[in-house]
Structure formats: C-alpha cells, structure tokens
Automatic annotation (TrEMBL):
Keyword Transmembrane helix on entry: no
GO BP term, example: response to stress
Entry's transmembrane regions: none
SUPFAM superfamilies assigned to the protein according to its UniProt record, in alphabetical order: Winged helix' DNA-binding domain
Record's keyword annotation contains Protease: no
Keywords carried by this UniProt record: DNA-binding, Transcription, Transcription regulation
Organism for this UniProt entry: Streptomyces coeruleorubidus
Protein's name in the database: MarR family transcriptional regulator
GO terms assigned for molecular function: DNA binding; DNA-binding transcription factor activity
Length: 158
C-alpha cells in the first residue's frame, strides 16, 4: 500500500463523500436515501436477495437495514418472502412499483452525473474501477477489515 496510508484514505474518503453528496442531492428530490437507492439497485436484478447481502451492499448494520426494509415494504417498493431453499431465511424482492421507482432514480442520477460532462474518460473510469476493486480485495483479504454484518462498517460514522 502507500507509504503514507493516511494520504490514500484521505483521497478515497474525499472522493466518496463528494460523489455521495452529489448523488444524494438528486435522490433528495425523490425523498430517497443512498442506502435505499443501493438496496433498490441490487434488487433490480429480479433475483431476490437475503438480508445479509443487502446489508453488505448498502453498507448498513442489520438493525438499520431491517428498519429500511420495513419502510420500503410500507411504501410498496419491496416485499419479503420465505426462501424456498432455506425456509429459515427471508428473500427481499422489488414490487413492480419498486422497479419503476428504481428506474426513475437511476435515470435521474445518470442524467445528473452526465450533465457536467464525463468526470473521467471511459478508459480512466475502467482503470479506476479495476484499481479500487483490487484495493478492496486486498483489504478484505488481509482479515483486518470489518463488514456491515453486526459490526461497525468501515468508514461509517455512528
């Protein structure tokens, strides 16, 4: 890793917070949080996902995710069903209304992201994705990084 990890951490945190603020400003128009957007996006594959996968994807601890899913159920955006492969587990899926909402949100975020022109050239974006994926994999592989499952998520303030 970098000779001075605090420099890398600072740059990553700054980029994440600035991009999250920008996306949140769009989502605010729809009264939607980034975490809800992440959940809707993951569920848009139509597969249905366990709460653990949703918590990891949304970077939320389990109790916070349960509260969010309850809200999304109340809004008729998602529904829960028993996992046929393991009746002790619950799968969450999008409703048709949830799918339409996710499409509207994604269109709005993409439109805003593209308004100022591309932030990075296409090849730079692919290179950045590859490097960030490699970094995340290396950090996960070190065994020193916690996840959202019942533990404090890395980089999440309480």
């Amino acid at each position: 890793m970098a000779r001075r990890p605090q420099e890398l951490l600072h740059l990553l945190t700054r980029a994440e917070r600035l991009s999250a603020r920008r996306v949140q400003s769009v989502l605010d128009e729809f009264d939607c949080s980034i975490e809800a957007w992440r959940v809707l996006d993951l569920l848009s594959d139509g597969e249905g996902h366990h709460m653990t996968a949703l918590a990891d994807h949304a970077f939320l601890p389990a109790p916070s995710l349960t509260k969010l899913i309850d809200q999304l159920v109340d809004q008729n955006l998602v529904f829960r069903r028993v996992d046929p492969a393991d009746r002790r587990r619950v799968l969450v899926q999008l409703t048709p209304r949830g799918m339409r909402r996710r499409q509207r949100l994604s269109r709005a975020v993409l439109a805003d992201w593209g308004e100022s022109g591309p932030v990075l050239a296409e090849d730079e974006e692919e290179q950045l994705k590859t490097l960030l994926d490699l970094l995340a994999g290396a950090l996960e592989g070190s065994g020193k990084v916690t996840t959202a499952r019942g533990e404090r998520a890395v980089g999440r303030a309480r």
